[in-house]
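Dear colleague,

Thank you for sharing your sequence with our group. We've completed the structure prediction you requested, and as agreed, I am returning the results in plain text so they can be pasted directly into your records. Please verify that the sequence below matches your submission; if there's any discrepancy, let me know and we will rerun it promptly.
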Amino acid sequence: MRYLPIRLHPNQDLRLALEALLAQEQVRAAFVVSGIGSLSTAMIRFAGMSDPTPLHGDFELLTLAGSLSPDGAHLHMTISDAQGQVTGGHAAPGCIIRTTAEILLALLPDHGFTREPDAASGCKELVIRPA
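Please find the predicted structure tokens below.
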């Protein structure tokens, strides 16, 4: 395992930047260990919903966690607004960095992640294989 600290900059798409970084590092499996920062737009898919909800404003990114594979990211986050109200869910594309995002990735070069249909859940789920 190799750790990779990164900083994302204003106007970057959080999820797309992490997916691109995985490809750039030529790794097929990674986990987001920690993530903090701020967002100007949050695209959050709440539990049981099929589409993300766009939220606009000044948000603190309190937590970010998930897995990264060449098939895409599975990320969850919590954010707080200017009144300190906290919400969270699945981080969809379109989460835009406001000032910064400081993220620690754990790159797993000995593994390969894919997302494949799962009969039990009806969704594409993580499949873990040796590299």
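Summary note from our side: The chain has a mean pLDDT of 96.

Kind regards,
the structure core
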